[in-house]
Amino acid sequence: MKPWRDLSVASKLYVVVGTMAVLIACELMTLRFAMNTLSAVRAFVGGEALWSKAQKDAVQSLLRYNITGDERDYEDFTAHLLIPDGDHLARLELSKPDFSRELVHRYFGQGGIHDADIDPIIALFRRFHSIPHLARAIEIWRQADEVIPVLKTTAEEFHYVVHSMPSDKKRHAALIERVQRLNNRLTSLESDFSATLGEGSRWLERLLMLVLFCAVLLIEGFSLTLTVLTSRQISRGLDEINEKAVRVASGDFRGSIPIRSRDEIGRLAREVNQMSEALRKSHSELEARVQERTAENARLLEEARAALQARDEFFSIASHELRTPLTSLFLQLQLLDRELSSGSERVGKMLGISLQQARRLTGLIEELLDVTRIRLGKLELHYETCDLSQLVQETVTLLGPEAERAGSRVSLSTPEPAVGRFDRNRINQVITNLLINAIKYGEGKPIELRVEVAGARGTLIVADLGMGIAPEQQQRIFERFERAVSGTNISGLGLGLYITRQIIEAHGGSIHVSSEPGRGSTFRVELPLQK
Ligand code: ADP
After folding, report:
1. Rounded to whole angstroms, how far apart are CA atoms 262 and 156?
2. CA-nearest residue, atom 13 of ligand 1
3. pTM: predicted TM-score of the whole model, two decimal places
4. Which residue has the higher pLDDT, 28 or 477?
5. Residue 359: which domain range?
6. Is 477 touching ligand 1 by the criterion CB < 6 Å?
C-alpha cells in the first residue's frame, strides 16, 4: 500500500478514474463480443432454417415431379438443393486451417445467408468449433450433408423411372418410400441441429451473462475500494492537520502530525510540523526574553528603589552632619561677635572651636567632592617618591591629640622605610581616614599602627580593639554611603572607606578588613613599593 499512499492526490484520482474507464471499456467490449456472438448464433439458426426449408421444398418438388412428370418440377428439385450444396461447400472451406473468406462468402451466399451475417458465422465457427454444443451441431450438419448426395442419387433414379418406366408402379412406390425415409432422416437431423444450437445459444447466453456480471462486480468492487481508501486517507490526513492547526493556534505546540504518505497531504503535514516547530522555538525564545526582561526590570526597579533609599538616607545623614558643625559655627561666631565688642579673653578659645567646626565642614564637603570626582573618573593623582612609614608618623603626630581626647593610646611601629611612588596628599588621606575610624569606633581602647615591608610590597596595618564589624557588613562598608552603625550614633557619611579603597586601587594596591564584633578591627593596606 505504501507506493499507493505516496502517489500524489491528483495521480490517485487519475488512477481511480482511469481504472474505472478501462474496466468500463472492457465491459463494453465484453458486451459487444456477447452481442456479436449471439447475433452469429442467430444467423447460424437462420441459415439452418433456410437449409431445412430448401431441403423440404426440394423433396416436395421431387414428389410433385413423380405425379406430374413435369421436367420443371425436377429442375425445381435441383435448384432447391443448391442451398444445402452452398452451405456444404462453406463448411468444408471453413474446416481448412487457411480457409478463404471470399469463398466462404460466396458459398454461404449461395446458401441464402445475408452477406452481413456471414462474418459473424465465420467467427463463431472458427472460434467455438471445439466447444461441445457447436461441435455437435457441426457434426449433425456434416451428417445431413452426407444424406443430401444420397437424396440426389435417389432423385436421379426417380427421374429415370418417371421418364423411362412410367407404368412401373412398384418401383415408383419403392422410390417414394426411399425419398420419404431420407426426408425423415433429414428432418430428424434438422431438429437435432436446431435443438443443439438452441441449447448452445442458451449456454452461451448464460456464460456471457456470468462474465458480464463478474466484470461489473469487479469494476464496482475495485473502484469502490480505491475510492474509499483514497477518500479515507485524504480526510484522515486533513483531519490531523486541522487538529494540529487548532492546537497551534491555542499555543499548544506539543506533538507532531504523523507523516503517512509522500503525497500533497504528507507534504502539507510535514510543512505544518515545521511551521509549528519554528513557532514553538520563537515562542519559547520570546518567553525566555520576556522572562529575562521581567527579571531585569525587577532588578533595575530594586536597584532604583535601593538607590532612592540610599539617597534619602544620605541626604538625611548629610544634612544632619552639615547642620551640626554649621550650628556650632554659627553659635561661636555670634558669641565671638559679642565678645569682640566686650573685649573678652575667651575669644581665642572660641576661634579655635570655630576653626575646628569649619575644618570638619570642609572635610565633609571634600568627601562629597571626592565621591563626585571618583564617579566622573576625575580623581587625579600626582605621584612623587615618598616614604609610607614617614607619612604614617606624620599623621599619627597630627592626630595624636584627637586620639588622646578619645582616650585611645596610639602605638606606632615603622621598623624600616617603605618608599614608593605615591600621591602624598591622597595617601595621607587614606592613613587619616583609617586612624580617625579607629579613634571613632575604637571605644577609647589602644590603637596600633604598623608598617611592614616585604620585597616590593609595603603593608600598613591599623588595628583597634573597639566595637568591631559584623561579618555580613565587612564587604559593604567599602561601598558608597554604607555604614555598619546607625546614623545618629557616631557621626559620618559612610564615604571614607569608599574613597580610601578607590585611592589605594588607583595606586595599584588593595585593602582588606578582618574583624570580630566587640573585639576590634584590623585594616590591612597593601601598596607597591619602589625596588
Ligand atoms: P563613616 O563616615 O561612617 O566613618 P567610613 O566609610 O569611614 O564612613 O566607614 C564606614 C563604616 O565602617 C562606618 O560607618 C563603621 O560602621 C565601619 N567602620 C569603619 N572603621 C571601623 C572600625 N575601625 N571599627 C569598627 N567599624 C568601623
Report:
1. 87
2. 483
3. 0.50
4. 477
5. 247-375
6. yes
